[in-house]
Amino acid sequence: MIEIIYDTSNLEGSCYIEILPDKYKGECWNPSSIYFTEENFGYITPVFEKCHKKFDYYAFNEIDIDTWKLISKELEYVKQYLANSPNPYSLKDIIGFPFTDSEEEFIDNFDTNVKQLISMITQFLSWIEEKSASTKFISVLGM
């Protein structure tokens, strides 16, 4: 399932990307954060690499709200691209596939995965907009 995890009680293990609506203050697994599985965040990782040149998947990235505006714009572009019935084999130019078999698995259930990814991006954009009103930084706490 391609989705955002909103509740830490739904996390199993530690292979998640945490999105914290603040600067990192030495603690992970914050109740105010949202979480992505490694694979689900992998789909949108190219957006972060494009918009935040210092982005490091394995580090704690404190990203200012102006950069989040660029990220949001690029996420909106990805969402629109997906909504326009793209050729499944053109996706690797737009989204990331973090594991060797990620692209094949995505294409195997293409219609459902595209719908779920669009939904995940839509929810993420709403969350970013909401949090941007009350903070100057949103941090991506990597692996």
UniProtKB/TrEMBL annotation:
Name of the protein in its database record: DUF1877 family protein
Native source species: Metabacillus sediminilitoris
